[in-house]
Amino acid sequence: MSNRVAIVDLGSNSCRMSIFEIDGESYRPVYEVKQNVRLAEGMMGNRRLTDASVERAIACLRQFVRQGTLHEVDEWMPVATAALRQAENGEDVRRRIEEETGLGFRVLTGEEEARYGFLGVVNTMPIHDAVIFDIGGASSEIALMRDRALIRAASLPYGALNLREMFGRYGEQSCVKMASDQAAEALAVHPWVQEGELLPLIGLGGTARALAKLFLAETHRKTPRLHGFELPASYVEVKLKQLQQMSVNKRRKMKGIAKHRAEIITTGLAVLATFVRTLKPPSLFVSRCGIREGLLFERLLGAADPVVPSVLEFSVRNFQRHFRIDRAAAGAVADMAMRLCAALSARLNLDASDRLVLWTAAQLEAAGAFVHPERWRDHAAYLVLHSDLYGLRPAEWQLVAQVVRFDHREPRAKKLSLLLRLSRWLALELGVEPHEISKGKGGELQVAARRKLRDIAEDTADAKVAEDIRKALQITCVFREPSSAALTSAR
Predict the structure, then answer these.
(1) For 32, which DSSP code?
(2) Exposed/middle/buried for 459, CB within 10 Å: 0-12, 13-18, 19+?
(3) Which of 72, 114, 160, 199 is placed for a possible disulfide with 153 were both Cys, Cβ 3.0 to 4.6 Å?
(4) Could you tell me which Pfam families the record lists for this protein (predicted)?
């Protein structure tokens, strides 16, 4: 039986809620909302949360409760982070919030916050070794991941908002330098961080996302999904130097920077630049999944170590359940696709990424029929690009979408699309088993025709794929009667 879970993350700068429908070990995103509440604003003087910031948070949470009621939420999982953790009146504020909203918040420790960020990343990104960071409003979390396991984690008591409040009065240039120095001093307390030197950095939170959006705008690039996007680590210093030369008003007009982040973007980047100088990462990845997804996977898997064995396989199975894909049919097409890859790999120069993309496309292509049987290929491509699918790089997901659409405009997509069509034709329309496929001489692909498939093949819906394959890839499908020895072996 499914139930709806609302996960609320009350942060120092923003408050977010994600509602998921959970059924066993599968889930479906239902609703997501964010509001900028600036809970930690004005806290630096006496380390107390102000009445104004608390009122903003309570007003936001009341709206969240209303939205959760409309979405028939069965279970609430509210957590709070650095603002309530650090404030002297944090416990009083927590009780007041509970009385006025009915939500009982769990205040995470810094290490717990870092761990949930790790769980959000490890279950949604195909990376084994990395340093994960989350620059918030009043703290910054950092975690070391080796072989998809959490090794160490820590929380620094500085974030983009409180560093701006600490040093903003000294002017932009001095503020950035003092913020960097403060972050470096806090990082030095955790010498184990050096074990992550030369590993990729994975960034959670608004600072990392804003940096990626700035990079995309500046390089005139587009990506269908920001999650997993990679950019050079050197860009951090470059952009920080540019932004600190600009006024806040000018930054507000830049594409990629939300208006509420324009003032604090440079202090957030100052912390990130400190991480880059210390760890010398080859590249920086952006993750849209963090604390809320980490809490989701802990709730979903119910294990002491809630890490899925394979991000891609778990995500594909979850997607199939969501869009009611017949797994037996999808598996038959995928098995045939992998058999064709094995037979034609050398001739078509197929690499590991090609095989992964083709396997994924075969598993997901039928999702389009959930929307409507007409134009199902286009529907499937849209769902692949815009659903919560994880386990491949953004460019690979884009290629999967092209393949399920049978898009022939790009050579690699055309090659894999034709192989997917051939797999569907053989496995679904003709009922051929993978073991009945073998590589013949030259560009010949032999199909054991035990049921005289040659006689019916031309009358099937996509019989034209055989001719398309021959023209485009110089692969000829040949139906042959198997020898008695082959039949005995097959049995």
Answers:
(1) E
(2) exposed
(3) 114
(4) Ppx-GppA, Ppx-GppA_III
Tokens 């699918």 — which residue?
389
Cα–Cα distances (Å) from 363 to 81, 129, 238, 368, in that order, read 39, 27, 42, 12
User: Could you identify the residue written with the tokens 């604390």?
Assistant: 291
- Supply the CATH classification number for the domain 111-292: 3.30.420.150
Residue-level length of the chain: 491
- Backbone phi, then psi, for 234, in 5-degree steps? -65, -20
Nearest to 434 by CA among 451, 418, 444, 446: 446
Asked whether the domain spanning 312-490 has the same topology as the one spanning 111-292, the reply is no
pLDDT tens-place string over residues 133-192: 999 999 999 999 999 999 999 999 999 999 999 999 999 999 999 999 999 999 999 999
The number of CA neighbours under 13 Å toward the Cβ of 274 is 28
Beta bridge partners of 17: 8, 33
- The arrangement of secondary structure in 312-490, i.e. its CATH architecture, is Orthogonal Bundle (1.10)
- Alpha carbon distance 269, 210 (integer Å): 10
Q: What is the pLDDT of residues 209-235, one digit of tens each?
A: 999 999 999 998 888 789 999 999 999
- CA 214 – CA 257 distance, rounded (Å): 7
Helices (H), 444-483: 453-457, 464-473
